[in-house]
Here is the input.
Amino acid sequence: MTQPTFIELCKKLIGSDHVITDPAKMLPFVTDYRKRFTGKALAAVFPGHTRQVADVVKLCKLHKVPIVPQSGNTGLVLGSVPDESGKAIVLSLKRMNRIREIDANNNTMTVEAGCILDHVHTAAGQANLMFPLTLASSGSCMIGGNLGANAGGTSVLRYGTARDLCLGLEVVTADGDVWNGLYKLRKNNTGYDLRDLFIGSEGTLGIITAAVLKLFPRPKAQQTAFAAVKSPEDALKLLSLAQRFCGDSLTAFELISRYSLELVTRHFPEILSPLPFTYPWYVLLELSDAESDEHAARQFEKLLEHAIEEGVISDAAIAQTLGQSRTMWQLRENISAAQSKEGKNIKHDIAVPTSLFGEFIETADRLLEQYFPGCRMVTFGHLGDGSLHYNVAAPKGVSDESFLTHQAEINRIVYDCVNQFKGVISAEHGLGALKHVENASYKSGSENRLMKTLKKALDPDNLMNPGKVLP
Here is the structure.
């Protein structure tokens, strides 16, 4: 009697309609978000609940089939797509999109990994609460991927990363066991912190299937301002003043270069800047106030008046309407889209200590100009938490293709500089398959050994998202 194939067994476990093997239909699940790479897979499978995920994992373990967990597939480092071998399955969590519980008295929400971030925002708002993780991809990214990559976003300054916004997890391990760690507790000293182990592991240690998220009271008012500064050092002085004047009300503090803004208004002319582009750097600030619009406006006015008197800022504008606030945020959120329209560039998602931001930018800019004269820098990031998008575009007149042949050299200059300033080469996008080899070269031997020991202990067969995070 002929034994059923692996694919036939998958179909039996979760239903034929939820197992795709047609390469054309699998294309969206094996192609990365930026459309730079397309891998191959045995199948894309879509379990509907945690038990089905566990059953599929057990089947994969039995047949030695690698698994690439996938949520919204909005990652930027090839962490959620398979390689070109065609040996793995893509395990999509998109069907697991239920909000299991909102506990308003405990300020928590329990959600499945396939919940789209915008839907979480909406559900929290309906309970008159807020989930503060804010990303440009919030209409398509999912909670499982947010946690798998420990996403940051624009509100890290006040609320922290995805790790800080999660209390408990449900995880399917590499053995197909289900760890129910959906604790709704702020304090839990009962052993190793398994939650933090899986968050940020990019699906290489287990598959996050559900999470308990922290909720917060909705602010009564939000105010946005745009300020011009002469240098990143002046932006740091403004950050210090803003924290002194506004305290925890300061929820966003974004540093943006003039060239980044010029790209946005060039390719999206309907987005108007509140200030003329006559200064080299700009800062986008946001306050979330628990009292009123008037109180928030007074805080901003006092802060900006003091900053102008001290010579920290050169000009400033406070949004007077919701529309003006949205326009300010559109300037920030459309930088990546404008870069794509302008042409290809070499992207870096790095972090250095906030106090060294200015010195890092000055040093790295000088080195790149020395080796690649005329290269154009698209620099912007979350100054409040020390993370920076530091992107390098070709000089005028040089083709993208010619410039991209120097990617390895440019990465080395940037990453060596990051290392010099005690930073890391990935702040919020993760390592995936793009950065894992370079990352290992900047880690100490003991750190690399510890990570490999954890991987071997939790995934001895190396079936959980192989080729990601670790070389």
Observations:
- The chain has 17 helices and 19 strands.
- The chain has four domains: 6-92, 99-217, 221-336, 343-429.
- The domain at 6-92 is CATH 3.30.43.10 (Uridine Diphospho-n-acetylenolpyruvylglucosamine Reductase; domain 2).
